Amino acid sequence: MASKAAQKRLAKEYVNIQKESPPFVWAAPDEKNILTWNYLIRGPPDSPFAGGEYHGVILFPSDYPFKPPGIKMITPSGRFEPDRKICLSMSDFHPGSWNPAWSCATILTGILSFMLTDEMTTGSVTSTDADKRAFAQRSHAWNILQPRFKAAFPEHCAPELRNLPNMGEQPAAASEPSSATSGASSSVPT
């Protein structure tokens, strides 16, 4: 159960992210538990993730903002192991480096920034750019088959990819990559 401080802080962060979300990201708390937030990251157009849609969760502790959250990406991406906690400086792997001034928006920006690097950490995988493009191309179709995604983002379950709130125009889906090599630890959805 969330402390009153955590509830108040997360409610304020949700209002702020609805008004102005960082580029390429969106998040919202679970309706039944304010400590669990679902997020969507759209792959930036100048990256191997272009056209991709990546669902994940941020698991805030009951004493947030004084302790860091756990972070997972659920959608196969070629960058992170699906549904496994990711070790980042702003995650519960590193409580000593946590800054209570950081917010959900800061965390989402950090996840996206780290996703765009090749740095390895717990929860990350190595794959080729072709693998990442293949995952990106299939990400929306994979997401809309997942009960967790459908429950969190029912408005994004149409067969075609839709824009996130406050994000404006997004690039068209990545072109069909030639056969991707299997360098990722999770399988490319078909």
Automatic annotation (TrEMBL):
Predominant subcellular localization, coarse grouping: endoplasmic reticulum
SMART domains per record: UBCc
Membrane keyword on record: yes
Domain named UBC core: residues: 5-162
Biased composition (Low complexity): 172-190
Enzyme Commission number, as recorded: 2.3.2.23
Compartment(s): Endoplasmic reticulum membrane
Pfam families: UQ_con
GO cellular component, one term: endoplasmic reticulum membrane
Annotated stretches, region: Disordered: 160-190
MF-aspect GO terms: ATP binding; ubiquitin conjugating enzyme activity
Keywords noted in UniProt: ATP-binding, Endoplasmic reticulum, Membrane, Nucleotide-binding, Transferase, Transmembrane, Transmembrane helix, Ubl conjugation pathway
PROSITE patterns assigned to the protein according to its UniProt record, in alphabetical order: UBC_2 (PS50127)
Protein name as catalogued: Ubiquitin-conjugating enzyme E2 6
